Amino acid sequence: MTGLLTEADGSPVAVENLEALSPVLLVCEHASRRLPEKMGSLGLSEDALKSHIAWDPGALAVSQLLVKSLDAALIYQRFSRLIYDCNRPPEAEAAMPPVSEVFEIPGNASISAAERLARTDALYVPFRDQLSNFITTRKAAGRQPVLITMHTFTPVYHGKQRDVEIGILHDVDSRLADAILAAAGGTSAYVVRRNEPYGPADGVTHTLIQHGLKNGLLNVMIEIRNDLVSNEIGQKVMADYLTGILGESLTALSQ
Questions:
Q1: How far apart are CA 242 and CA 244, in angstroms?
Q2: Is there a domain that residue 232 lies in?
Q3: Domain containing residue 89
Q4: With b meaning 16 or more CB within 10 Å and e meaning fewer, what string describes 109-133?
Q5: Total domain count for the chain?
Q6: Which phi and psi angles does 107 have, rounded to 5°?
Q7: Number of H helices, E strands in the chain
Q8: Residue 7 domain-assigned?
Q9: Cα–Cα distance between 221 and 176 in angstroms, integer?
Q10: CA–CA separation, 11 vs 61, rounded Å?
């Protein structure tokens, strides 16, 4: 399997506001549910392909609002995580999952080594390199980026209701997460918790480790319950809230 992406597919990576004045670099690994032409439907129904297993609904919309309110840069993946989950390293099974929650993914069953490599080269490598190049360029200019990855999660998982509304996730470096949680503690707008509904043990901090920790950057992963950002009003309210607590956090850390 070679040349996974066609000319019609376009680039696997999208970038916005790369000349941003703010140090904030927003990353959205699960921005899209789009599949490359050559991959068909992976054997899934249209309903499955619209669901959270294929992407993080609302994550890109909120990120784009934050680009404007924070004057942040944004880098995001233009294809579904079902083809390649860019928040996973190539050796991880979850990078090309054969099962997601209760859904079996026929197109990901028994993928050959050559097919895995083709997906990695087409999607993960350009995404990784775009992030690395941005960070390297900023650091060379004496500007230290602040890495914030943006995600959403489903309100019900394996039949269990989740009451957390915003998760502030971190790996071994909790500086930014601590500051955000402190800022969020001053308001009762949302139920905000540390390392919920996922945490480092779930393998969700790959981007934070690869691009944040290894570069000594402040970094955090923000998980939003997707029913809160299912429409433009919810997305705007959430973006306004995050703008406030992120601004307060970065100010506190700069003092």
A1: 5
A2: yes
A3: 13-254
A4: eebeeebbebbbbbbbbbbbebbee
A5: 1
A6: -70, -10
A7: 7, 11
A8: no
A9: 10
A10: 19
pLDDT mean values, one per 10 residues, the chain (255 residues): 83 97 97 96 94 96 98 98 97 93 90 95 98 98 97 89 96 98 90 96 97 98 98 98 97 91
The total number of residues written for the chain in this structure: 255
At 109, the amino acid letter reads: A
Q: Is the dihedral of CA 222, 226, 232, 234 positive or negative?
A: negative
Give me the CATH number covering residue 26. 3.40.630.40
State the CB neighbour count (10 A cutoff) for residue 166: 22
The answer to whether the peptide bond before residue 197 is cis (omega within 30 degrees of 0) is yes
Angular region, 92: left φ>0, alpha ψ -120 to 50, beta rest: beta
Residue with tokens 């549910």: 33
Residue at 161 is within a domain: yes
Report the predicted TM-score, pTM, of the whole model to 2 decimal places: 0.96
